[in-house]
Every structure is written in C-alpha cells, then in structure tokens.
C-alpha cells in the first residue's frame, strides 16, 4: 500500500469538514475521490499533501506523515495539482516549470526533465516564453501537471483537473492521466465527472458531507445506487440491462 488514511478528520475552526475518512491507495493505481461541491474532496487531498492539519493517521510507504508539511511530503514523493491549477499567471511557462524542480538536488537532470516535458507537451515548448496566464485552460492544466511531475512524484494528487474545461479538452486530460498510470505513477484523482472518471480509475470512493458513503472497484461503483443517484443520473446499468 503506498498510502493509507485512517480516521481522517479536518476542522476549519469549529467546522468539521471531513470525518472518519478511511482510504487506501496501492502503488500503480488510479483511485478516484468523487463527491459534490463541499463534500470534502479538496480538504482530504490538502491533508494528504501536508497543507492542512488533521486528526487521524496518514501512512505513506509504511511511514506516518506526521509531522505533516507540504515541503516534507513533496520531497517524500507526494505532489499536488491543486484545485484551480495554481499556475502563476504573471510568470512565463518556463518559469512555472522551473518552480516544479525547486525541491530537487539533481538540477542537471531536472533541466533534462524540463526538456522531456517539452517533448511530451509540444505546446508548452512553443509557448515557453509566454506568460502562463495567456494559455488556454487546457494548456494551463497541462502546465500544472507537467510542473507537478517535475518533482518526480510517486503519488500524484489531482484536484478536479477537468474543472472548467471544454469536453474535448477534458477527454485529453483524462487520456493524459491514464498515460501517467501506464508510466507507473500512482494517482489520486478528485473529480465530479463521475462517468469519465470511473472509466479510467481502478477504484473509487464517494464522499458526501465529509464522509465516505460508498467505495469499491470502478466497475462496482458504476453500478452502485448511491453513485448512480448522485452522479450518473438514474438507475444502475445492471438494473436496466444497459451496458
Ligand atoms: N477555509 C475554509 N474555512 C471554512 N470552511 C471551509 C474552508 N474550506 C472548506 N471549507 C468547508 O469544508 C467543507 C469541505 O470543503 P472542500 O473544499 O473540501 O469540498 P470539495 O469537495 O473540494 O468541494 P468543491 O467540489 O466545491 O471543490 C465545505 O463545507 C466547505 O464549506
Ligand atoms: Mg474542491
């Protein structure tokens, strides 16, 4: 198990945003965290990334993530693409990528890895000297993912990467996430687009008002009544006989 979360609770002042969350991620999996607005998805990934104090236990590679700090967790191999992407719009594309390597000691290799990102995302090479704010939403999401990959994570946390993207661009982002898993990366994918998410995920958790209400393999959840009622618009396909 690369990550185990047990009894996670996060408070904002007196407000308990998530409670009793148990979650497991095995190396090489895409695990989805699905839930409506305010369900606690961002809070959960921020706790895992070291950005929110929490109660309970988060174990990464068999070790406790306490004390939990963003820099420590990043160095340990946990990288977050935050909700809204976290691109620095007044910096160039290239400088945003450089930021992704700041925690690395092997700067010569890091420079090569930036070249590798330009190979993988030719549009970023083309626009390397542009201000990041001038990129389209889809290009900014690619930049955010490329920047996160430059810290060489083992576990990538993606917080609603498809938010605000056109349908075609959303498909491209989901394909990119699948390709990352093929490269051996482990992914925790926060999403509201349940149908598309369940097509690329191995397993999923459904959050409602700060709790996990159901979980299982992606195939099981595609037929789970709580999931279908909340997210897939109707009757589970095994009840209708639909594929
Ligand atoms: N900084 C904060 N201060 C107070 N309450 C907060 C804060 N951030 C989040 N919350 C509350 O915590 C709960 C969980 O929020 P969170 O952002 O984790 O949800 P989410 O599932 O990511 O939602 P969304 O899909 O809208 O991004 C919500 O009730 C929210 O209002
Ligand atoms: Mg959120």
Shape by Cα distribution: globular
Alpha plus pi helix count = 11
Helix content bin: 25-40%
Secondary structural class: alpha/beta
- The largest beta-sheet arranges its strands as 6-7-8-3-9-10
Radius of gyration (Å) = 18 Å
CATH architecture of the domain at 3-86 and 153-236, by name, is 3-Layer(aba) Sandwich
Question: Can you give a write-up of this model?
Answer:
The chain has 243 residues and is α/β, with parallel strands linked by helices. The protein has a domain of 168 residues: Rossmann fold. 39% of the residues lie in helices and 26% in strands. The C terminus is likely disordered. Bound molecules: adenosine-5'-triphosphate (ATP) and magnesium ion. The site of adenosine-5'-triphosphate (ATP) has 12 residues, from strand 2 and helix 1.
Task: Give a short summary of the structure.
The chain is α/β, with parallel strands linked by helices and 243 residues long.
Secondary-structure map with pairings?
Layout: E1 3-12, E2 15-25, E3 30-35, H1 41-49, E4 55-60, E5 63-64, H2 70-76, E6 78-81, H3 93-99, H4 107-120, H5 122-126, H6 137-149, E7 155-159, H7 167-182, E8 186-191, H8 194-200, E9 203-208, E10 211-217, H9 218-222, H10 225-231, H11 237-240
Helix pairs in contact: 3-6
Bound molecules: adenosine-5'-triphosphate (ATP) and magnesium ion (MG).
């Amino acid at each position: 198990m690369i990550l185990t979360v047990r009894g996670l609770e996060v408070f904002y002042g007196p407000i308990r945003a998530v409670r009793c969350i148990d979650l497991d991620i095995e190396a090489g999996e895409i695990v989805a965290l699905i839930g409506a607005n305010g369900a606690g998805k961002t809070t959960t990934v921020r706790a895992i990334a070291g950005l929110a104090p929490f109660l309970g236990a988060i174990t990464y590679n068999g070790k406790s993530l306490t004390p939990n700090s963003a820099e420590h967790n990043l160095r340990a191999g946990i990288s977050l693409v935050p909700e809204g992407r976290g691109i620095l719009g007044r910096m160039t594309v290239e400088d945003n990528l450089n930021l992704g390597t700041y925690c690395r000691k092997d700067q010569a290799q890091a420079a090569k890895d930036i070249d590798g990102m330009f190979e993988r995302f030719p549009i970023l090479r083309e626009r390397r000297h542009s201000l990041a704010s001038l990129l389209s939403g889809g290009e900014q999401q690619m930049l955010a993912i490329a920047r996160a990959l430059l810290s060489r994570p083992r576990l990538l946390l993606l917080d609603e990467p498809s938010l605000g993207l056109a349908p075609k661009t959303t498909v491209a982002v989901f394909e990119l996430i699948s390709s990352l898993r093929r490269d051996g990366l482990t992914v925790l994918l926060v999403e509201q687009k349940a149908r598309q998410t369940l097509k690329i995920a191995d397993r999923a958790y459904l959050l409602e008002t700060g709790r996990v209400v159901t979980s299982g393999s992606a195939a099981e959840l595609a037929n789970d009544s709580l999931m279908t009622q909340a997210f897939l618009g109707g009757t589970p396909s095994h009840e209708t006989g639909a594929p």
